[in-house]
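Data deposition worksheet. Section B asks for the primary sequence of the deposited chain exactly as it was used as input, without tags or linkers unless they were present during the calculation. Section C holds the resulting structure in token form. Section D is free text for depositor observations; keep each observation to a single sentence. Incomplete worksheets are returned to the depositor.
Section A, Depositor: J.P.
Section B:
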Amino acid sequence: MTRRPLIAGNWKMHGDCAWTQSYLEQLLPQVEANGPEVVVCPPFTALAAAAVIVVGSPVALGAQNCHWEDKGAFTGEVSAAMLAEVGASWVLVGHSERRQYFGETDETAVSRAAAAQRARLGAILCVGETLAQRQGGETLAVLERQTRGLGGLDPARLAIAYEPVWAIGTGHNATPSQAQQAHAFLRQRAREHFGDEAARHLRILYGGSVKPGNVAELLAEEDVDGALVGGASLDVAGFSAIIQAAAGRMTSTR
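Section C:
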């Protein structure tokens, strides 16, 4: 079975509204409706500006986080329903930077994914090991732990992003074989939680220093279904090249 590739750009804390408008006006003409699914994830302050531009286009809007409660006294937080109202259809949860700097845990990451799905958003759940964990042979144990809560989620509104922490923003990415090993394990975990059919359809993305120069060989692996792109997504030409590489995979597997 061929899964439609998903390419998501995580802009992190970059881009004001004017920059967002300029970026999207350049990107949209380069994205084909019948190509890979494309999502851009601007900062919260640029979501409304982005929503106006991408409406009716092949590019979907994602947010970079949401709270696990639907509403309440949580100063400074944003609910999934608020994101849906502004035009988002996806949200990232559990990114390693949230885990490293803001106290995210395996449990809260899955709770955020559940909240996103209650608001009818797709959730991209990020998982991955640190350098010390990889060197200690703990990669699969870490991924097992980070996916224990999958059973409470809807696989139809879920993607998993494998992001080895040691590769994020470092210029070092996992080799295709390392990525495939982790992705195959994650698909097996999905099979255990959701059954064979849902696991076959689940998209598992690779993230971690994805660039135009390395994405094609990563996407050639059987269980790599797309990419969560950080720094390279801030450059329209580079992000477009990554999208085109994913389109090439679709052509080669038809």
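Section D:
The longest strand covers residues 122-127.
Residues 129 and 135 are 10 Å apart (CA to CA).
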